[in-house]
Design goal:
The chain is mainly β. Helix content is 5%, strand content 50%. The longest helix has 9 residues. The chain starts with a helix and ends with a strand.
Amino acid sequence: QRQGIVAALRQARSADGSGIITFTNPDQQLTAAIRSTEVRVAGRPGAAVTFREPRIGRGANVVVLTPGVPTGTGTAQVALARRAGTAAVTEYWTNDVHRLEQRFVVHARPDGVGPVEVRQTLETSLTAAIDKTGQALILADNSGERLRFGQPAAWDADGRPLPMRLTLDGHTLG
């Protein structure tokens, strides 16, 4: 019976018609509030981060994604249909027993030259750093690590893995 309750908690819920969809992940002790332009992820008391202004593009043409309407209430995955200039982009948030995952699917090559870049602004009272491998964002305070986001991955249109590493420039995660 507990498994059924926990699985039900992982399902996306609408926050009273406000356009906000929420997730609870009891296994990871996380909650997420997904809005058209930002996502707030919270863990233990005092451990929270807001991801804002997602941007995608290539070279000098990295642009802010248009707002998206969160859909997927009653499922373990929320989707936001967006645009990066002329390219359609779907942002997904998936909630399962192992993780809360953010994913961007770029449906057409964005304008510009060079590799596709994904960036977003972080708002948090915690100290943000990238681990030495470039594979995890660590948010910490004086008592230690509070939140960790890791395992970045990227694939090309044919499903081949691409090299990927995280960067942090001020409050911009790339």
